[in-house]
Amino acid sequence: QKEVEQNSGPLSVPEGAIASLNCTYSDRGSQSFFWYRQYSGKSPELIMSIYSNGDKEDGRFTAQLNKASQYVSLLIRDSQPSDSATYLCAARDSNYQLIWGAGTKLIIKP
Amino acid sequence: EAGVTQSPTHLIKTRGQQATLRCSPISGHTSVYWYQQALGLGLQFLLWYDEGEERNRGNFPPRFSGRQFPNYSSELNVNALELEDSALYLCASSPGRRPVPYGYTFGSGTRLTVV
Lengths: 110, 115
What we know:
heterodimer, A: 5-stranded antiparallel beta sheet, 11 strands, B: mainly beta
């Protein structure tokens, strides 16, 4: 059974601090990983993708991938109240489908 | 470039009726995915269509069905509606079964309410 696991939270972070979101996956054949942000009642929006071991930075967001540990993370620097949302981690399997985690609810406290 | 479009935005049906939801993928995308998201819960995979064929199906009863048309748009049908079918139904599209890494692009969803 291919699985992607995330801590459901909520994760509460003070405004301006770094939010760290984590995800593990079971399928060693997965090569591509994605982070989506979903506001309440809205559809998921792709914010980061990562395919190689190491870090990938885009503005305030950094995605980290460690294939040996089967671990993916998302760091959000200088967290803003507008970052409050549920963050979904997904891994693309060998059948071209995304396997989804249940999501981590992030709350940024002013 | 137009994104993934879903219609209708909201749909209210009576228990036992049928609902039809529609999705148009991004131009050039051949795969369409359907998900159900009940309030406060995660994404539940329903169906995957690619190039007109059903490629995979989630753990839902047969009253959930769909199809993909030659222009790659898709329709989700839910028969014999039950109260617990009330949810946000999300459609997503992707370029298809290619060995190139990409994510899905989601539409805005259809909010189905069964009363």
